[in-house]
Amino acid sequence: MRLPMRWDRGISLLAVLALSLACFWPGLSGHFVFDDFPNIVQNPAVHATRIDSSALMRAAQAFEPGPFGRPLPMMSFAVDHALYGLDARGWKRTNLVIHLANTALVFALLLSLLRWTGRELGGAQVTATVVAALWAIHPLQVSTVLYVVQRMEMMAATSLLLALLAYLAGRRRQLEGRRGGWALIMSSGLIAATGLISKESAVIFPLLTLTLEVTLLRFQSARAADSSLLRWGYAIGSAIGAALFLAIVIPHYAEPAQYAYRDFTMEQRLLSQLTIVPTYLQQILVPKLGNMLFNYDHLSAPSGLLDPPTVALGGLLLGALGITAIALRARVPLFAAGILWFFAAHALTSNVAPLELAYEHRNYLALLGVLIAGFGLGEHLLPPKALKAVALASLLLLAFLGFMRSLAWSSALSLAVENATNNPLSARAANDLGVELAELSGFDPKSPYFARAVAEFERGMMLPRSSPLPEQALIILHTANNLPVDARWWDSIDRKLRTQAIGVQERLALSGLLDQASEGFAIDPERLERSWRLVDERFRWPAHQRALFADWLSKQPGREAQARIDLTHASIEASQAGDARLESTIRERIEALDAGLK
User: What is the predicted pLDDT for the residue at 562?
Assistant: First the structure.
């Protein structure tokens, strides 16, 4: 006896989820990495000991960059801390649950989309099962799912997927002449808007729906008035969006101050995406683990369209893909929909905002577009048996590669070795490997791993565009063990602070040295102050960090008067920022310092 169709769908989805769980399971034993530390490990605002309204509100305000603050994932971090402390395994399990929920939503979205192509539900179910599985287990997804802080990306995707399902449900009602279509369409916009409190990437929702309209939905409706309203609505919305982009967004980011902490300009960043976006395509279509680097800090922005020539070639490839998608939208609508979806998914992160040049998690939803396009093209070009063989081979290959990459994420050491091996030009990867080797040595200079850690840090500090973090590690390692600190390391820090953009890593290197000095490490006070002020000349330290520096400086013989000046500046900056509590605390420190000076 054949099961009802809804049971078939349930079993198919459970099979996809089970496969995904198996692929990601090895990586759940891994540790926090990179941006997890400033956002989670070193962020006391999310270190809740119990789940209550005050803890959640404190965490909701703990993310500073961005116009919306990302309160939803930050609150989820507080919940995880209350449940698991700083045991990364529990946090990664939460991420995996979110990914599995998104996989179920992708499966439902694919079923809904395939209905618009006229497929029978049985055939649509098979296709949705395979494509959802490929999306869920692709090895490129590992660095999103097992990278705790990228919960922000996944939660924004959850809102987008729910919104798209509501939108398609509304459009289905319109196509069938039933009531409630516009209500669902309007609610889809509200659902998408909730994604903004997870991450700004949810802003691409209108582009995704426009992509689906021009390829699969074609503005069809049982009522001509609804169809006309949709066409005019998108036309007017697109015109307004383009005008705002040209008149406000571009001039805003064209200001030099917006790129002050980057070593490239807005124009260079845009040119860089002509090679980076094709690289994403290669990683998706040719999923070689050695090409999935995690760290992309070795990349430099091009100087022009022909410098290097691959920039122009990448632009020609992307242009050809876009033109082909538009030209084939009637004959091969799934291919067109997938390509335009991929472009829409990158419309924010491959644009004018001063983001880092490349990150793998930016493909979390974009990957789905490439899979849809690939299936649409394969269906058009291959006989059914050949298409099934390709699908099965792809599933087996991606399951193996996803499992292997997840295995590399199972420990901090294995991940550091993997990243440094795959990308020997990455200073971040070298620094991470140095840290793991130092921990493996027990910070004992007699251990052979200690010498290997020192060698890796020294290799990393010499790489092009490396931050001062390797030098910081070398200074702290040697100071902690009463070993001589090479003056070259301080000189290298100062050279980088004078010549490179002052970004997050540069500030972390100096604040880390300050933390160690404040805890009693014999960090050279003259060199530390000199380096600190080099940063301050080009990037004004926030008031709370300026106050911490002044506190440390006040304990250095003969530097009390200068410390008072720094505290006064910090007090003024706290007042200008409207932080009354910090201003009051700094004033108390000034009064205490004055009393000591008297």
Answer: 87
